[in-house]
Design brief:
GO terms for molecular function: catalytic activity, acting on RNA; pseudouridine synthase activity; RNA binding. This is Pseudouridine synthase. With 297 residues, the chain is of the alpha+beta class. It has two domains: 5-76, Structural Genomics Hypothetical 15.5 Kd Protein In mrcA-pckA Intergenic Region, Chain A (Roll); 87-289, Pseudouridine synthase (2-Layer Sandwich). 14% of the residues lie in helices and 30% in strands. It has helices at residues 25-32, 38-46, 117-125, 153-161, 235-242; strands at residues 5-6, 11-14, 51-52, 69-72, 75-76, 87-91, 95-100, 131-132, 141-147, 166-174, 183-192, 199-202, 208-218, 221-228, 270-278, 285-289. The strands form three sheets. Strands 6, 7, 8, 9, 10, 11, 12, 13, 14, 15 and 16 form an eleven-stranded mixed beta sheet that branches. It has a three-stranded antiparallel beta sheet with strand order 2-4-3, with no helix packed on it. Strands 1-5 form a two-stranded antiparallel ribbon. The protein starts with a strand and ends in an 8-residue tail after the last strand.
Length: 297
């Protein structure tokens, strides 16, 4: 665990238009970011840590102005240190493919301000404008694509938003009760669950599709190949739980486990193993494979 940490770049929040009487800026920040806490925002306003995008100080007495853009730096008193390193597998003038370790978030989130893949890559490469074009969970290891060139960024975003990039994952999980079955195609609707960081199945239009295949069995444990045809948060973890399997060391599904510090000796056994797509600029197929592997018992 490291000490105080401050983001290298500012974050922004714009005051929305609303009917008078206007709330205070403290009320807005508390409602917009409830998990941070009202006392934290009050202290930041008292300490002069929030300004507008012109550099003017914002304090507790600053009146609410619709469309005013607030500027602040994310900070935490104790940022966890992640003792694993990423690898850059490929880089050209447009994209970068990184192999992310377990436990490291792709972008800043929660207590992680500087310990994230994005800021590590910016520091290592000197490329300050790179951004991820898709995400994987903090607990998941494997391949993540970044855009380097603003001019082509939308083309690579569309590979994932339109489902043109083929992603394959590997998981080590308990075997379902249907011992003779080898494949499943799960189609359903995933929405936010409780607590806020979990998801659940709901009625309505399908927005999550996964193909699940058992590749190897040993006792009560199997090696699974997972092919998400959509990209919803926690999709694969939830879909495996729906067939009666649980990824080893999964603390969220099928049942939420008590909160505790990361156990670096027992990472979630889920790996973003393969990424395949036709490069929209070079017009040729690109295939990448993670250099990491999961331990099958």
């Amino acid at each position: 665990m490291s000490g105080f940490s401050r983001a290298p770049r500012p974050s922004y929040a714009t005051l929305p238009d609303c009917a008078p009487p206007y709330p205070t800026i403290l009320d807005f920040l508390d409602k917009r970011f409830p998990k941070l806490g009202r006392d934290v925002w009050q202290a930041r306003l008292d300490q002069g840590k929030i300004r507008d995008d012109r550099g003017q100080l914002i304090d507790l007495d600053t009146p609410y102005q619709p469309a005013l853009r607030l500027c602040y730096f994310r900070e935490v008193d104790k940022e966890p240190s992640i003792p694993f390193r990423e690898k850059i597998l490929y880089q050209d003038e447009r994209i970068l493919i990184a192999d992310k370790p377990h436990f490291l978030p792709v972008t800043p989130a929660g207590p992680y301000v500087n310990e994230c893949l994005l800021y590590r890559l910016r520091a290592d490469t000197g490329l300050q404008e790179i951004v991820p074009v898709h995400r994987i969970d903090r607990e998941t290891a494997g391949l993540v694509m970044f855009s380097i060139d603003r001019r082509t960024r939308g083309l690579y975003h569309e590979l994932f938003s339109a489902g043109h990039a083929r992603k394959c994952y590997e998981a080590i999980a308990t075997l379902p009760a249907e011992q003779d079955r080898e494949t499943w195609l799960i189609k359903n609707r995933i929405v936010a669950g409780e607590p806020w960081f979990r998801v659940k199945v709901a009625e309505g239009e399908v927005n999550a599709i996964s193909k699940i295949t058992v590749m190897q069995r040993k006792g009560s444990i199997g090696r699974f190949r997972l092919e998400p045809l959509t990209g919803k948060q926690h999709q694969l973890r939830l879909h495996l739980s729906l067939i009666g399997s649980q990824i080893l060391n999964d603390r969220y599904y099928p049942h939420l486990q008590p909160k505790h510090a990361d156990d670096f000796e027992h990472p979630l056994q889920l790996l973003a193993q393969e990424l395949c797509f036709r490069d929209p600029v070079a017009n040729k197929m690109r295939e990448f494979q993670s250099t990491q592997s999961l331990e099958f018992p």
